[in-house]
Amino acid sequence: MSEAKEIKLILEDGSVFAGKSFGYHGSVSGEMVFNTAMTGYPESLTDPSYKGQILVSTYPLIGNYGVPSKETENGIPKFYESDEIHIAGLVISEYSFGYSHWNAQKSLGDWLKEYKVPGIFGIDTRSLTQLLRENGPMLGKVVADDVDVEFYNPDIHNLAAMVSTKEKLVYGNGKYRVVLLDTGAKYNILRCLLKRDTTVIRVPWDYDFTQEEYDGIVLSNGPGNPALYEASVNNIRKALQGDKPIFGICLGNQLMGIAAGGSTHKLKYGHRAHNHPVKLVGTDKCYITSQNHGFVLDTDSLDSDWEPYFINLNDNTNEGIRNKKKPFFSTQFHPEASGGPTDTEFLFDNFMDLVKERKK
User: Does 222 appear as a known binding residue?
Assistant: First the structure.
């Protein structure tokens, strides 16, 4: 193993963290975010919701199980959440140059190099995470060989247009036709739908899906500021005039809320982990959920036709909404999980039950 090169992480407040390079040795910039999950870095790095962000992993050892194969199923990668890495950079404490796993095909470092994504290790991620928690959203940049770059704020750009499919795609041949509005959809949403006797019509973020023949709609997750996706909101607003079931996930929750007349705001440091507890409103039921979002819906901004579905037990923020009269509901968390937990996958069954009821 050759000696790792020096590389720096610089934050917009002037803080500097010196480390070693283990991925692509280059300079990048983006929004600094942290994830407290212990596993699942192949899934996280390929989650389109991380577009434009430099990811800090709080778990101290990363890379020990390598990167899985590119095997496909139903026309999509079996072990990834998209076709490529979406993070701008990866910051970790300790990198495992050796890796071992039955399905490992390459090292994490080699994978990052393949997609020209810098990786930096040897950072005190505890101190860095505390800084991000205290200061809230902060821009940062990874600087290699003193080649400086400008700070980059992803919130002012249409990231959905960058990560969405560019054309309509159809998957499966099931009985029920479901439109998937792709604003940065994780592939496990597709997998969860396809195993429930569906034909999935995946469409671009600004596509007028109301012109399609469908039995239900799923609004996907995705990156960035929901206030920028006016075309998506306008089409969702048209769909809300009908009565076919709609299921929103993560960004989809926010977009449906905006289409229903609501508003959103940015959280101080977002929810990114596999262990966020949410409560089903009106019950004592609690679920552990996978989350990855920086913005959140203002529940009180909705009219009386809507009600909270779930709330976050850590900070009492909105975790989903549902319509009192029509078959519309959404979750801020990820019921499709990947990489875990799978406690709330039953919501796909709930959605399909609504679809089947209206198909009769």
Answer: yes
- Could you confirm whether 336 is annotated as catalytic? yes
Together in a domain, 76 and 104: yes
Q: Was 188 annotated as part of a binding site? A: no
- Tell me the residue ranges of DSSP E strands in 88-196: 89-91, 94-95, 104-106, 119-121, 138-144, 169-171, 176-181
Angstrom CA distances, 150 to 10, 297, 360, stand at: 11, 31, 57
Q: 214 and 120: one domain? A: no
Could you give the count of Cα atoms lying within 13 Å of 265 in the half-sphere of its Cβ? Answer: 8
Phi, psi of 247 (to 5 degrees): -130, 115
17 labeled part of a ligand binding site: no
Task: Please confirm, yes or no, whether 286 is among the known catalytic residues.
Answer: no
Q: Helix, strand, or coil here: 216?
A: strand
CB proximity list for 209: less than 8 A, separation 6 or greater: 179, 181, 201, 203, 217, 235, 239
Active site residue 157: no
Q: Of 256, 225, 70, whose CA–CA distance to 160 is shortest?
A: 225
- Strand-pairing partners, residue 77, are 72
Question: Which domain range does residue 348 map to?
Answer: 159-359
**Token pair in block for residue 303:** 């009219």
22 is in an annotated binding site: no
Q: Quote the number of domains for the chain.
A: 2
CATH number for the domain spanning 232: value is 3.40.50.880
Q: Which of 250, 271, 274, 276 is the catalytic position?
A: 250
Q: Which of 274, 276, 293, 334 is catalytic?
A: 334
Q: What is the pLDDT along the chain (360 residues), one digit of tens a residue?
A: 557 999 999 999 999 999 999 999 999 999 999 999 999 999 999 999 999 999 999 999 999 999 999 999 999 999 999 999 999 999 999 999 999 999 999 999 999 999 999 999 999 999 999 999 999 889 999 999 999 999 999 999 999 999 999 999 999 999 999 999 999 999 999 999 999 999 999 999 999 999 999 999 999 999 999 999 999 999 999 999 999 999 999 999 999 999 999 999 999 989 999 999 999 999 999 999 999 999 999 989 999 999 999 999 999 999 999 999 999 999 999 999 998 999 999 999 999 999 999 987
320's enclosing H/E stretch is strand 320-323
Residue 1 falls inside a structural domain: no
